[in-house]
Amino acid sequence: MKTDPVELLKDLVRTDTTNPPGNEAILMEKLEEIFRQEGIPYLHQQTAPGRGNLLAWLRSEGKPQLPALVLLSHMDVVAAQAEQWQFPPFAAQEDQGYIYGRGTVDTKQLTVMELEAFLNLKGKPLCRDVYFLATSDEESGSTYGLKWFLEHTITVDEKTCTGEQLLQNSDVISEGGGFPILANGKELYLCETGQKGCGSVTFTVKARKAKGPFFGSGDGMARAMALAQDIGSRKLEGRELETVACFREALAGSTLSPMMEKILQAMQGNTLTVTLVSGKSVNEVCVTCDVRLLPGFGREYLTGILEDLARKWDCTYEITSLGQGYESSPQGDFLKILEQATLEQRGKTRQEAQVVPFVSMGSSDGHLLVDCGAHVYGYSPVLPRDMTFDTAVSMVHGVNERIHRDSVLFGCRVLTQAVEKAAKKEA
Question: Which is nearest to 415 in space by CA: 322, 351, 339, 332?
Answer without folding.
Answer: 339
